[in-house]
Write a structure and sequence with these properties.
The structure holds two protein chains of two kinds. Chain A is about 75% helix and about 0% strand. Chain A is mainly α. Chain A has one domain. Chain B contains nine helices and ten strands. Classes of the chains: A mainly alpha, B alpha/beta. The interface between A and B is large, with 41 and 51 residues.
C-alpha cells in the first residue's frame, strides 16, 4: 500500500465525517448552545461571587467570563470526543463500524483518522463559539486564535481517545449514557475549567490533587495558555502522556486478536 | 495499478494448497467464554461457487463471518482467502473480500454516491476510478438513476442493492453476505438472489450466502449446513438431500439438525 492509498482513505473518512456533521445541524446547535448557556448565564451569575486574582497567562484581573472561556472550549472538545465515540458504539450496533473494519488498512490508522475527523469538526464548533464570545467582550489577542490551533488538536485527540477507549469497552448504547455521567461531569467539575486550582486547594487538598491529575485540567490549561499566545510545557507533557496512554489502550481494545471485541459474544446468528 | 484488490494480489506469497479456493476454512473453532460458537468448522469455496451457509439463528453464522472479515481473530484453525491467511496477512486478505452485513451499513442522511465514495476510499481507490466503478456497479444493480438521492428515500430492497454495489467496487474475489434478505419482501428477495447468482456466474466470484431461510437454497447451489457451531453437511444441494435420504432440502435440514439434537441429548 502506497502513501497515496493511505491519503485517499484518510481523506474519505474526513469527508464522510464532515458530511455527516453538515447533515446533523441539530447536533451543531446543541454543541454550541451548551457552552453559550454557561457563558451567558452561569458566568454572569457567578461573576460577583468568584473573583479571580492575577494568574498566568492573564496579565490583569480578568472577568469570570474570560476565565471560564478556555474551560468551555474544553467542554466542546470533551463532549465532541465523547459523542464521536458514542457514534462509534452506535455505528457498531448499526453496522457501519463493520464497513470501517473490513477496510484493508491497519486498524490504528482507521481509528486515528476517525478520531482526527471528529477533532476537526469540534474545532469548527470552537471557532464559532469564540466568534460569539468575542461580542461578549471575550477578546483574546488576535494571534491567540492561531496559536490555540495545536492545543485544540492535541487536547481534542486526547479527549477523543478517552471516548474511543470507552467505546471499545462498552457493550451497548444504554451503558454509554451512564458512562457519560460518570466520565464527563466528574472530569469537567474536578478541573480548572470553572475555578483556578489554588482556590480548590484552599478548600480541599484531596480535591486539588484529583484536579491536578485530571487529564481535562491539563487540556484546559494548554488551551488557556495557547489562547493568549503562551506555551505551557507542563500541560503539554501531561496531555501528550495521556494521549499516548489512552490511544494505545483504545487501539488495544479494538485489536482483533487481543482486544475486548474478541472476548465478547457476537450477536447470535 | 488499476484496482486496490489487484494491487494486493501482486504481493501474494508462495503458493499454498488452498490457493485455488476463494475461501478455505480449516478446523476453525471459536468460543465466547464457555460457550462454543464454532466447533472445528471446515469447508471451502471455489471461484464461481454460490454457497449457501444454512443455519438457524445462533448456529454460528455471524461468528464465522466476523472471523473471516477479521472483526476478531480465530484462535484455532486457519482461514485463507485465495491462499492468504486472514490472521497473518489481513490487508491482503481483506482487499479480496466484499462484504454485505446483516445490519444496514449505509448512512441514511448521505446520498448513494457519497456512501459509495466512502466505501471506495476505505479501499484506497483513486478519484477517477471510483467514479467509473460506482457508475458501473450501480448500473448493474439498476440503481444508477438514484445515484444522487439520499439513502433515506430508498426502499429496503434498494438499499441492499446499493450495499451489494458498494461491496463490489474494489473488485473482490470473494463476496460474503450475512442474511442479506432479512426484512425484504418476496419480490426484492428474489431479485437480489438472482442478481448475486448472476455475479457469481459472470465474474467467477466465490459467494458465501448465509441465511436461515431454506427456500433460498437453489437446486444448483452448494450448501453448508451449520448447526450449533458444527458443519453437519456440505456439498451440492441435491447431494446433501440424497445423502440425508430426504426428498427436499427442507426435509434434509430437519433430519440433519434433528439427528444432531438427539445425538447431543444422548451424550
Amino acid at each position: 500500500m502506497s502513501p497515496s492509498h493511505y491519503l485517499r482513505c484518510f481523506a474519505g473518512i474526513q469527508i464522510r465525517e464532515g458530511l455527516r456533521f453538515v447533515n446533523q445541524r441539530g447536533r451543531f446547535v446543541a454543541a454550541l448552545v451548551r457552552p453559550l448557556v454557561w457563558l451567558f448565564i452561569f458566568a454572569a451569575g457567578f461573576r460577583g461571587v468568584l473573583g479571580v486574582s492575577i494568574i498566568p497567562p492573564y496579565q490583569t484581573y480578568v472577568l469570570y467570563e474570560v476565565y471560564i472561556t478556555p474551560g468551555l472550549i474544553g467542554m466542546i472538545l470533551l463532549f465532541s470526543g465523547m459523542q464521536s465515540s458514542l457514534s462509534m458504539v452506535y455505528d457498531r450496533e448499526m453496522g457501519s463500524m463493520r464497513t470501517l473494519m473490513v477496510s484493508p488498512f491497519p486498524r490504528w490508522f482507521l481509528l486515528g483518522s476517525k478520531l482526527l475527523a471528529a477533532v476537526f469538526v469540534a474545532m469548527l464548533q470552537v471557532y464559532v463559539f469564540l466568534a460569539i464570545a468575542w461580542f461578549w467582550r471575550i477578546q483574546p489577542p488576535a494571534h491567540g486564535y492561531l496559536t490555540v490551533i495545536p492545543a485544540l488538536i492535541l487536547s481534542g485527540l486526547m479527549l477523543g481517545s478517552i471516548g474511543l477507549l470507552i467505546s471499545s469497552v462498552v457493550k451497548q448504547l444504554e451503558n454509554f449514557a451512564g458512562v457519560m455521567n460518570f466520565v464527563i461531569f466528574p472530569m469537567f467539575f474536578a478541573s480548572s475549567a470553572l475555578y483556578p486550582l489554588w482556590r480548590v486547594r484552599e478548600s480541599s487538598v484531596l480535591l486539588y490533587q484529583i484536579c491536578a491529575v485530571n487529564p481535562f485540567t491539563h487540556a484546559v490549561e494548554l488551551v488557556r495558555f495557547a489562547l493568549y499566545g503562551q506555551f505551557n510545557p507542563t500541560a503539554l507533557l501531561w496531555v501528550l502522556a495521556y494521549l499516548v496512554v489512552f490511544l494505545a489502550l483504545a487501539i488495544y481494545g479494538y485489536d482483533p486478536s487481543r482486544g475486548l471485541l474478541a472476548r465478547r459474544a457476537a450477536v447470535p446468528g | 495499478m488499476a484496482v486496490a484488490a489487484d494491487h494486493w494480489m501482486e504481493a501474494r506469497g508462495p503458493s499454498a494448497p488452498d490457493e485455488a479456493h476463494c475461501l478455505a476454512v480449516r478446523e476453525v473453532s471459536h468460543s465466547f467464554g464457555k460457550r462454543k460458537a464454532l466447533d472445528s468448522v471446515s469447508f471451502s469455496i471455489a471461484p464461481s461457487d454460490f454457497t449457501v451457509l444454512l443455519g438457524q439463528n445462533g448456529a454460528g453464522k455471524t461468528t464465522l463471518f466476523s472471523l473471516i472479515t477479521r472483526l476478531y481473530d480465530n484462535r484455532s484453525g486457519s482461514i485463507r482467502v485465495l491462499g492468504m491467511e486472514v490472521r497473518k496477512r489481513p490487508s491482503a486478505a481483506l482487499a479480496l473480500i466484499g462484504a454485505v452485513f446483516q445490519q444496514r451499513t449505509l448512512d441514511l442522511d448521505l446520498t448513494v454516491r457519497q456512501n459509495l465514495r466512502y466505501h471506495a476510499a476505505l479501499h484506497g481507490m483513486a478519484g477517477h476510478e471510483t467514479r467509473a466503478r460506482i457508475e458501473a456497479e450501480l448500473r448493474r444493480v439498476g440503481m444508477l438513476e438514484r445515484i444522487d438521492d439520499r439513502v433515506r428515500s430508498l426502499s429496503g430492497g434498494q438499499m441492499r442493492r446499493v450495499e451489494i454495489a458498494g461491496a463490489l467496487l474494489h473488485r473482490p474475489k470473494l463476496l460474503l453476505l450475512d442474511e442479506p434478505t432479512v426484512g425484504l419482501d418476496i419480490g426484492s428477495r428474489q431479485a437480489i438472489l438472482e442478481h448475486v447468482h448472476e455475479l457469481c456466474r459472470e465474474q467467477g466470484l466465490g459467494v458465501l450466502w448465509a441465511t436461515h431461510l431454506i427456500d433460498e437454497v437453489g437446486p444448483q447451489d452448494r450448501v453448508i449446513v451449520l448447526h450449533q457451531g458444527r458443519v453437519l453437511a456440505e456439498g451440492a444441494s441435491e447431494e446433501v438431500v440424497r445423502t440425508a435420504g430426504a426428498s427436499s432440502i427442507r426435509e434434509a435440514f430437519t433430519r440433519l439438525t434433528g439427528a444432531a439434537a438427539s445425538e447431543r441429548s444422548r451424550s
